Amino acid sequence: MDKLPNDPNILYSAINMLLRDEEFDNFSQLCYAFGVEPAKVEAKLNDAGFEYYAEGHCFRAKQ
Asked: pLDDT value at position 22?
């Protein structure tokens, strides 16, 4: 994967896959590896109905 997907649902899935498969130690490291600001990615996913769940090391649908 050369860059993160633009579609929020595919982005959600891709980020969780990369975090789950331990490609990256944390969300910030993942974002910097792809050259994007973590706050921008998190805002995009928040707008799409997802939030970061630090304890689970993943994004999930807002409760």
From this structure: 81
CA 15 – CA 29 distance, rounded (Å): 11
Q: What tokens appear for 28 in the block?
A: 């910030």
Distance CA 1, CA 43 (A): 21
Q: Is 58:20 a contact under the CB 8 Å cutoff?
A: yes
CA angle 8, 14, 20 (to 5 degrees): 135
Q: CA Rg, the chain, in Å?
A: 10
* pLDDT tens-place string over residues 34-61: 999 999 999 999 999 999 998 889 999 9
